[in-house]
Write a structure and sequence with these properties.
Blueprint (H helix, E strand, L loop, with lengths): L12 H4 L1 E2 L5 E3 L4 H10 L2 E3 L2 E3 L3 E5 L5 E6 H8 L2 H4 L25 H10 L14 E2 L4 H11 L3 E6 L2 E7 H18 L1
Parallel strand pairs: 2-5, 7-8
Antiparallel strand pairs: 1-9, 3-4, 5-6, 8-9
Length: 187
């Protein structure tokens, strides 16, 4: 069924989702290096618009979605600890941190060696639980509500308890914009 003919009231999560076969996933016990390679090599082609995914779905051996990891989590996980030790959640704290003397290690081959070592770490150590999902038949407004209330850029779509795809903010925004344009043209 082509979602282009839906109006906003009848658009469902399944109409907007990127199907799982077009979205990257990996075994939950893969390494950070494998996760990084998969995310950097993958391209999502949705109706002729090609983009890179920001999030990797992590599955158990039964194909059940167990967690997810963001591109920036992988980078943080790969960075040697002397790079991230001074990070803080407080926005101003970043600006009054003295330069760590260990940063001189970046100029040597040791930083790359540490990065390679950290790439062998299981991705599960930095993965996030799935904060929310939507059902395949959930209406667009429910998808928006879940994304906004959980501050998500992507939400997995479940059908009968199994993940069948993901809806990203880019598809939601396109659908909202399209439906607003349709309203403008008919009024």
């Amino acid at each position: 069924m082509d979602h282009e003919h839906h109006d906003q009231a009848t658009t469902r999560a399944r109409d907007l989702m990127v199907p799982t076969e077009k979205y990257p996933s990996a075994a939950a016990d893969c390494s950070l290096g494998e996760a990084a390679r998969l995310l950097s090599d993958w391209h999502i082609d949705m109706r002729g618009s090609v983009s890179m995914p920001r999030i990797l779905l992590l599955m158990d051996h039964d194909g059940q979605l167990v967690s997810m990891v963001r591109r920036r989590d992988i980078l943080r996980g790969l960075a040697p600890s002397f790079l991230v030790a001074s990070f803080s959640d407080h926005p101003e704290a970043m600006f009054d941190v003295d330069v760590d003397p260990n940063l001189t290690e970046l100029l040597s081959g040791r930083a790359e060696e540490k990065l390679r070592h950290r790439a062998e770490m299981p991705v599960s150590e930095i993965a996030h639980p799935i904060p929310a999902t939507v059902a395949a038949d959930d209406p667009l407004i429910r998808v928006i509500q879940v994304m906004v209330s959980h501050d998500l850029s992507m939400v997995p779509v479940l059908d009968d308890g199994k993940v069948i795809g993901v809806v990203r903010t880019v598809e939601v925004l396109k659908e909202v914009s399209r439906s607003l344009t349709d309203v403008d043209e008919t009024s």
